[in-house]
Amino acid sequence: MGTHHTAASTGKRAAMPDNPPGDIPGEEFRRYGHEIVDWIAEYLQHPEDYPVLSQVTPGEIARALPDGPPADPEPLSDVLADFERVIMPGITHWNHPGFMAYFGVTGSAPGILGELLAAALNVNGMLWRTSPAASELEAVSLDWLRQLLGLPPSFEGIIYDTASISTLVAVAAAREATGLPYREQGSAGLPPLSLYCSEHAHSSVEKGAITLGIGQQGVRAIPVDEAFRMDVGVLREAIDKDRAAGRLPFCVVATAGTTSTTSVDPIPAIAEVAAENNLWLHVDAAYGGAAAILPEKRWILEGAERADSLVMNPHKWLFTPIDLSAFFSPRLDTVHAAFSLVPEYLRTGDGEVRNYMDYGPQLGRRFRALKLWFVLRAFGADGLRSRIRDHIRLAGDFAAWVDAAPDWERLAPVPLSVVCFRAAPARMNEEALNALNQRILDRVNQAGRVFLSHTRLRGMLTLRVAIGNIRSDRAYVRLAWEELVAALAAELSVPV
Amino acid sequence: MGTHHTAASTGKRAAMPDNPPGDIPGEEFRRYGHEIVDWIAEYLQHPEDYPVLSQVTPGEIARALPDGPPADPEPLSDVLADFERVIMPGITHWNHPGFMAYFGVTGSAPGILGELLAAALNVNGMLWRTSPAASELEAVSLDWLRQLLGLPPSFEGIIYDTASISTLVAVAAAREATGLPYREQGSAGLPPLSLYCSEHAHSSVEKGAITLGIGQQGVRAIPVDEAFRMDVGVLREAIDKDRAAGRLPFCVVATAGTTSTTSVDPIPAIAEVAAENNLWLHVDAAYGGAAAILPEKRWILEGAERADSLVMNPHKWLFTPIDLSAFFSPRLDTVHAAFSLVPEYLRTGDGEVRNYMDYGPQLGRRFRALKLWFVLRAFGADGLRSRIRDHIRLAGDFAAWVDAAPDWERLAPVPLSVVCFRAAPARMNEEALNALNQRILDRVNQAGRVFLSHTRLRGMLTLRVAIGNIRSDRAYVRLAWEELVAALAAELSVPV
What we know:
7-stranded mixed sheet, 496 residues, homodimer, 12% strand, alpha/beta, 41% helix, Aspartate Aminotransferase, domain 2, Aspartate Aminotransferase, domain 1
């Protein structure tokens, strides 16, 4: 990077000191910045030097900190020392190759550096003019991502913080698309709305309905088939029944990669139902969407070209530091109609530019596109594909070990990179199996080498191995399996 | 900072390569990290080397970027070169000492370094166990902030991304506090809700009501007095009228530091009305709250001890990089009741810990507390007070120049650090004055040395000078005044 002094010359300028009053001097920023970069480089090379799941007890971190803020400035060296001494033991290491809980996700070095620059620039991209590059790089980087996902050019992108907000925006746009004056009147006096998703849809769908004033009773959780995919026949029936009862069906959420099992709803059939019933189709591909950049996995978004909106989170399985949720829609005009509200103090004469503040509940907007652009360029499309392909292969390996082991059983298909399974030694009833698997999970997690989480499938306590970490590696996936096998052996040797 | 190798030893571990596959090697992270730190150090010393308001035209940045992502990895040196060549000209420099638009806000060096560490750790603090330090430092750093603001210990804190979300959460909690089943049923069949705020309240209040399904018609914009403060008599009347009409008054938002003029609503009187009418009182101190850390400005939060919730944004006037909005409430149980929804896959056996995902619309949560803790410690309470006191003094200086100039007039009191004013040469009607001030604004902004924004007060196009930037400085405030005076002179010498 060059020096700044050639960057601009705007004539008259006030003479400024080198360092803002009260802030740390530039030379200290350099020194501590280098020290932190070196520390991070080392940390990122071996996060496995730490236990993956923090071993502290509740309140331990808080008790180690002073009761109140200091009156006088403290040297940054003290702050960094406390960071290592007090904060680090309380970190659960999402970067650890043994992190296979929830969705095992990480950032990456280019993403971290992009975030550093964004924090330094500290622009608020609420309006085009408050940083044109933030708005335009958002459009460009999401269009690159759209191409990787194989979505039509009519799909335009917006970045939100989380998939929860992306889905909330989708449902709000669906409400606006009814043409009824919910925005002006609220729900009072208008038909109660009904929203459909599978019983395996993410909790953010129901939370969005609560937040938007649609209510939990407006959410129909449609049963799933044997592979945990929405039953489209039941969906049709539910819509008819709601309409007969005077409710207004307005939106259906299909999931490409559910949270428990990564099942993929039959989007083409759901799109057909949506079209017949004039429902807004939102596709939740927050986790699974990343796999669609592989030709052999593109099928998971089949039918999504008919969607009204889709969410895919680069901060999940595309090595971008949280938070960055990518929302795509061919109907951004409806999103705009749902949310735009421009007070006088935010009016500009900039004409036909896109002011992203008009497209969601939040006014302030970090320059999130920068880190995504860094990641897309530093990895390249093929680099990203290699990582995701590796993860899917590792999940297949793990599934094969489970399938081959007599005391274990797999509980769901593995379309992506998550394996659902449990220990199932002979002669135990379901209640005993649930208790056994909970103890296995606790035993493995307490050891601190791998971190797994669970779900519940058809009443069965189900263990999950979720691969998606940039450090995911055959040795650690194997270690997870060995720990599980050892935990089962230990449990079976102990009287319960 | 020390080395990592003493940090932990957890026994059996898989052998790992030094660099994750596909990511840039550690030595490159170090090299580019140092380069970026040096670049930032220089940038932060002299952001005034750039024009404050980006001079690009719409589409210029997007056109300078490739149409699609690269297939192969690109060297980070190329990405950084493009960052300087393509992105930087499209940046509006919020760090520039001439940025006095909207609220002139900046981060600071300690905040940037805290953000860098948070991006590297990349934890998702949705649950206590997914990083206990993220949850506990959030509680501790917000308690420090609470003490600085002089709020009672019963006020517990939560961090959201933006004040828009903090206010949305407050209104949702207010709805929950009615005791009626809005969460379950939605608004259908329940009384229409009425929310009160001043006509100068931030647009996020109305946007929150739209989002929550309360509707724009559920928002009563109460007129203001001559100093732009809510008229509490009219508030009382509006509540009575709504109740008589069958609506349910449920929430009032008082603002401590409105966006146009930084007026401060009479919170004690509003609190009294809220108590009499069983309304949830939310105080929006997103910008103004920072001033309450000064003993001589603590009056702006007088009465806030009776509030049910309060928002104050450290990313506005407390030198913390965006985004970080601090929400305080003595009734977090009600916030929990409004939002908690725990699917099986997020259940833990952690007992009495606070899982922040239960307190808002978003599941994913960045480790935002870290940067706030860095700022509070590196500045110290007195360091922060000095900066804010300086800003208020500079605003007073600017107001005095306006007051002393015959061709200018001040249009609002200056309780904090924003001055509202206009050019008002004799013998011009209101229409001509509005046009003149718009031209003055455009002329000043196009010159690129300072950036101002506007509002409209009683129909008058009003110029604003907003001081709050860590680089705010008498020389630049003076420069803004000189530019305005020169722009007026230029306008008056041109036939219009």
